[in-house]
Every structure is written in C-alpha cells, then in structure tokens.
Amino acid sequence: MAKIHAAFSLFLSVFALVNASVDPQKKIVGIYELKRGNFSVKITNWGATVISAVLPDSKGNLADVVLGFDTIAPYVNDTTYFGAIVGRVANRIGGAHFDLNGKKYRLVANEGENMLHGGHRGFSKVIWTVKDHKAGDFPHITFTYHSFDGEQGFPGNLAVVVTYKIVGDYKLSVKMRAKALDKPTPVNLAQHTYWNLAGHNSGSILSNTVQIFGSHYTPVDDSLIPTGQILSVENTPYDFLHPNTIGSRFADLPTGYDINYVLDSSRPDPNGLKKAVIVKDSKSGRSLELWTNQPGLQFYTSNKLVDVLGKGGYSYGPQNGICLETQGYPDSVNHPNFPSQIVNPGHVYRHDMFYRFSF
C-alpha cells in the first residue's frame, strides 16, 4: 500500500509541475549555475544542456571536465549533442518508423534513413521552461517541456520534467520524468554530456581506465542499428567487466566505441539504482562513478568529433571525450525482445542518474 501511495504522489507532483502556470520570462534562454563549495555545474535551458562541470583534481587544481562551447549560440546548430537531454527517443530508430497498436508511425529521419536522438528538432534543439532554480546546500534546477502530438512524427502529447541537483559533495543527480497525456508513445531520454576528467582541453581519453557493469551488449549493423541480438561481452573488445584502459582495446576496435551495454541488475542500492560505470583518469586523479535505474548504457568515445571548435578556442577531435548515456536499448520499438519503452496515457516514465566524483 505504501508503494501505491508513493507512486500516486509522484504522479500528482509531476502533473502539477508540468501544468502549473509558467512565467513567460522563464522561456528566455539563459545559463544557470549550481554550486556547492568548489564544485560548480552550469546548465542552459537550451536543450536542458550541461555546459560545464568544474571540480578539483588530486592536487586541488580546478578544471572544467565537460566538452562544450563558451556561449549559447554554437549549441543552436551543434550536431554533437554536447551536454543535452536527447529525446523523445534517444539513440537510433531503424528506418525512422515503428508500429504501435496496429498503426505505423513514420518519423523524421536525420541520419540517413534512420532517426537519431529524436530527429532534426529533438529535445536538444528546443527551449525548455525554467520551472524552479534554487541555491543553498543542495542547489537544483528544474526544466519542463511540452512535446506536442506529432512532433518529429511521435504520437501524443508528452509532458517532460528534468531536474539537476547537487545532492552532496561532488555528487550530482539527474531526474527525468515524462507523462503521456493522451496516446501511448515511446519515451527514452538520455543525458549526452561528453566527459574528459583531465579537463575538457586535455586531449585523448584513451588512457582512462573504465569498468562497465554490463556482461552483455546489443550488437549493431553497419548503420549502428541493433540486430536484435543480446550477446556476451566475453572474449570481445567490449569486455570491461574488470577495469581496463580504453585504448587497450583499440587494436581490435580501431574506430572506437559506440555501443549499448545491457547493465547487470544485481545489487541495486536502496533507491533502486544500479552501478553502471566507473571512469578513472590517472593524470588528474579524478574519477566518475555513475548509477542509474535504466537497463542500458551507451558507451561512446566521441569517434565523430572532428575539429569542433570548443571552449577557449580548443579544437576537439576523436576520442577527446566519453559519453555515458544511460537509456533503454536502442531501436527497442522495433525489437519486441528488448525492454519496452512505450508509456501509456496517465503513466510516468522515470529515469534517474547519480554521478559521484572523487579525486
């Protein structure tokens, strides 16, 4: 009974948050800071995008560990998805179509014949409303967005809420909620920050040590669309069950990583989150630990970054950052054996992430 009351309370709070009156001034694009001690995270309501995260290294030296731009303007036409919330469905949908309840939906293709990260105008390319922004010991900011019926081809109106919150020393939580208002619809949001723990302008991440808590992965075809198989990582370049440097596997996978891991579900914490990945940078001593309630993790080593002019005039290239995108499996709408991403009217999609940084 307690769980029923908790779920109902969550439903009411999300509904109230999305449907409350909004100050039109809060639709202006701006940059907002969350700060606790010498840990600072800056976010913009353009795409609900993380644009910087500053924290110390093992010697106390501060650095920004997020790839991105100095101003908002470059994010508008950015094709890297630096720091953004991507959706309505993150990752790829093969053929930019899917069937649901006997009806075929044709989506906006923006990567050849496929859809990537929600289409030409996904959630990374819209102005989110700033609903709440508070400082203090546990600073937070909440963004809302109403995705209309038919946006990029997806069915139904969808109310979306994202909250970033510093929940302790060098600890950041991201909570994503989405409520289907009138039609069943697929929902799969992802946070698309590119991390370089040595500093955004430190170059290659190949010496980083990674441990991924996923003993299986979803193989893909030449267009990076899942085949529908779920295979073991054993004896493959995808095996990071034990800590290893990223570069140690590049002889077998020279183009880099862009693959979804099936996260192991054992030993969740009291909040129902499971450990997804640990990344350590030996040069700075910084490490990142990520927990989530999602079934998958897209591990991407920024293979397609080519001469992207970033902060301070630094040019980002391949393997200059790591994306750790917790998510549902890619193209699940076309693979019945994958966990469903369909959210029915009145139901709330819930996606939680928790980052713990240390040095």
Structural summary, described in words:
With 359 residues, the protein is mainly beta. The chain contains two helices and 29 strands. The strands form eight sheets. A nine-stranded antiparallel sheet has the order 10-11-12-13-29-23-22-17-20. A six-stranded antiparallel sheet has the order 16-27-24-21-18-19, with no helix packed on it. Strands 1-2-3-4 form a four-stranded antiparallel sheet, with no helix packed on it. The radius of gyration is 19 Å and the shape is globular.
**First-to-last CA distance:** 42 Å
Largest sheet, in brief, is: 9 strands, antiparallel
- Helix amount: under 10%
Mean pLDDT: 93
Low-confidence stretches: 1-25
Q: Which descriptors would you attach to this protein?
A:
mainly beta; 6% helix; 29 strands; nine-stranded antiparallel β-sheet; 38% strand; 359 residues; single chain
Strand and helix layout:
Layout: H1 2-19, E1 31-36, E2 39-44, E3 49-56, E4 62-64, H2 73-76, E5 85-86, E6 92-93, E7 97-100, E8 103-106, E9 115-116, E10 129-134, E11 140-147, E12 158-168, E13 171-180, E14 185-186, E15 190-191, E16 194-195, E17 209-212, E18 216-218, E19 231-232, E20 244-245, E21 258-262, E22 274-280, E23 287-292, E24 296-300, E25 308-309, E26 315-316, E27 322-327, E28 342-343, E29 348-358
Antiparallel strand pairs: 1-2, 2-3, 3-4, 5-15, 6-9, 7-8, 10-11, 11-12, 12-13, 13-29, 14-28, 16-27, 17-20, 17-22, 18-19, 18-21, 21-24, 22-23, 23-29, 24-27, 25-26
Concise account of the structure shown:
The chain is mainly beta. It is built from two helices and 29 strands.
